[in-house]
Amino acid sequence: MKNITVLLLIFFLSACATYTTPASGVDVSSISDVDIAELMAREPQAQFPSRMAVVRIQAPGYTSRTNSAYGTGEYSVITTRDIEDETSIAGMADWSGLHSVAPIGRLLLPRQLDSMKDLRIAAAKLRTDLVLVYSIDTAFHIEGQPMGALGLIKLGFVKNKQAHVSTTTSGAIIDVRTGFVYGVSEATEKEQQGASIWSTEEAIDQARLKSEAESFKSFIKETKKLWSNIVLEHG
User: Fold this and answer.
1) N or C: fewer beta carbons within 10 Å in the chain?
2) Is the peptide bond before 49 cis (omega within 30 degrees of 0)?
3) Which residue ranges make up each domain of the chain?
């Protein structure tokens, strides 16, 4: 009887096990601190070769199994890199027209984050000319249906279904002094798997990490193309 009880308990716990999808990314343009007329009137002032700060933002209260965000307000900031390819980031310093690249840490940020100006001030403390602001948006799909941010995936429910994770990384290069937007870039990658692999929370999260890592690598490649155009026009 004891063995049967233990087996039933294990079955019940496994049947009820769930995976919570992370919060969404942030539309960088949505945190502009000026109206359209003023934004259009702004001019670039960055010097070339330039120094660039890099920062990742997410929805308020963002958390995942490998990371958590800093700050409250309109958005939050991820200061610990978990899916970013460090080689790709370090390699940005070798781009033509770019002198150096520096991450924005939480010591440079206010607790309340309400506009792009908060990020520009943090970048100014690093004495950089530009700031690359990017966000990662990951979606989980089961049988073609999106689960949505902060959704619950029942592990037993997906056993015999088709599932995949798709990630879009998007960002903008912004003038620290004026807020002028030099351009935007974006990249999307998908991790297709049979849902039978999604038998544990760890397995689902590995699919997320792989999708986000590949998306970020592609984003850096697209951003390099954008940077080449920026240097041609403004450098």
Assistant:
1) N
2) yes
3) 18-234
